[in-house]
Fold:
Amino acid sequence: MRTLLTGASGYVGLHVLREMLARGHEVTAVVRSRYKLGPFGDDTRVRVVETDLERDATVAQAVPGHDVFVHAALLWGAPGSELEARDIAVAAKLFDAAARVGLTRSIYVSSTAVHFPLSAEMGEDDMLRTAGVYGATKAAGELFLRAACAQSEMRGVVVRPGPVVGAPAFDGGSHRLHRQIGKMVDAAREGRSIDVIEGEGRQLVDVSTVARAIRLLAERDGPHPTYLCVDRQVTPWEDVAKTVVECLRSASEVRVLPREDDEVVPRFRTERIEGLLGGPTDAGDALRAQIRCLA
Structure:
């Protein structure tokens, strides 16, 4: 199978690239710099296209000849920089180009941010709603994928990861830390106390799980149009904070503050992703590996 992958040098993209190669895919990696691909840049199974995604002609020329298109890139920057609008435009043009040349499938790496503000229970078939620019950008990308598929025979699949944790794909590879965990790491390094609310947490996901899900969706016949990609269990922020303190050998105190309301902790349904992966997942080891890398 020949796969076109944007964002191949990013945190998630590198894991997707590794997973695809391990399963025999030939991959065209669209990146700004071959250097950021590390050891994958010299792999004979990888065709590297160095370009800016906003160079329409260059990227469009790379699309033909593939079976699957995976769009894992994100143009992003400071609020007000218009990068969010440019990201949407790039996604729309890429999905349209994939549909026009007859690709059978396009996979879009979206985010659970399209469900914000979170509610008690959420599933793939809920209406899109978002309370932030990032979520709105991802929601718009999903809609442009659906539009491209509606005008062609291409099948579109959306993957919505939750907070992604795990070590980089290789030493020195691209790495991303969830904002909440990043604040805990900063506090632990400085020896400050870490405050968390009793019972609050999120459904995390191992970056390797995201990569495996994307690879399976590239290969599987008749996938669902959307998959929430998170663990079944909610990981309490208290447990995350204790992991951070332990891995960094910090003297910071984890202070658990009482809840001010009786609202149920938000939860995403996981039946669909578990059906794809063969059962529930657990990001605990990936979280520890990520924190140890930072330590």
Notes: The chain has two domains: 2-164+205-229, 166-203+232-265+283-294. The longest helix spans residues 83-100.
